[in-house]
Amino acid sequence: MLEASQLECVRGDRRLFAGVSFRLEGGELLNLQGKNGAGKTSLLRMLVGLAQPVAGEITWRGEPIRKLAEDYRAELCYMGHHNAIKEELTPLENLLASARLAGEPLSEEQALEALYAVGLAGREDLQAKYLSQGQKRRVALARLIHERRALWVLDEPFVALDVAAVDMVAGLIGAHLQRGGLAVMTTHQAVTIPAGNLREYRLGA
Amino acid sequence: MLDLLFAVIARDLKLALRRQADLVSALFFFIIVVSLFPLGVGPEMDMLRKMAPGVLWVAALLATMLTLPRLFGDDYRDGTLEQLVLAPQPLPVTVLGKMAAHWLSSGLPLTLLAPVLGLQFDLSADGLLVLTLALLVGTPSLSAIGAIGAALTLGLRGGGVLVSLLVLPLYIPVLIFGAGAVDAAVSGLGFEAHLSLLGALLAGSLFFAPWATAAALKISLE
């Protein structure tokens, strides 16, 4: 479903990678490996369409993603380095606002349920600036609980999380793969995803 | 699509209300700059009356400039801008929502405050009325045009200064017709033509600025 062919990335006057090709089908997880600076984040940003490859093409269900544009973005869930949560809003407001802005509104019960599931019970009405790094990451990850879009692109989803939260997120990704979803992620941690077909791709090898 | 527009406006207004310091500092800047002129020039009513439209409009432009870096800056830093760009709706609609919220939290308060400050310059009742009307029609253009500059300078060091250099020249037509409307009203001439031109500028900038801003945001994010 998701296919990348001969991707090339240049930052400044340095070529980060070239000739990157892979193919991903439903139920598969691609784990991108590589040293710091190998271009993992750059590749993920290309996959979601935030950056354009210097050469090569990315296709989704056989169509180039540039042409699909909004149709592609409607099937895509991206979590970047930043948590994309607003410090001045409470976790509950954050979750409701980001779901509404993504075009898939959540009910308040669903949002509360998601926050309880990521272990933020009792914190749902506290402004996010009073939360710890790990808790902020949990607010960001709470989005994944009701997320049913086909392709998840996750940049270091496990950063700042404790062991229990890492297991929970791994479980979420596993359940997503079991539903026939696709996922691409980068991580430096050894995490076991409980289900799905796992593949690795090493950048800059 | 309308739902998205309202969602963006509601979110940005809520954020503006939680962070009142920004809102209030731009307003105080406006008040102080405008109040410095009568103090500096002295109580010569004729001169003050002549200066009033220009001073009020220039101060409004500068106060708007102050708020521009935050228009996309915060969203850019915490990653919400990426999510907005990746939402499955057209980006210009999102941008239009952000412009509207920016105007409601900066342009509109300036407009409401202006007639009170105009009293310091001994403006006539007609003059005050036209000043308010002109600001009401003109300040949304300032938000729309300013958004382009804010998007272009996103993530650059010294973006605040750069945004002034980029945007202030583009504000000149709004300044000329806005101050001109008040001048015309004070000297008893018809001010309708000036207001219509401000309206035309607003229509043009509301149509083109969201596209230009969306394109600039995509470039800045890359």
From TrEMBL, chain A:
SUPFAM superfamilies: P-loop containing nucleoside triphosphate hydrolases. The keyword Membrane applies. NCBIfam families: ccmA, PRK13538.1. It comes from Azospira oryzae. Residues 2-203 form the ABC transporter domain. Pfam families: ABC_tran (PF00005). Keywords: ATP-binding, Cell membrane, Cytochrome c-type biogenesis, Membrane, Nucleotide-binding, Translocase, Transport. The keyword Membrane applies. This is Heme exporter protein A.
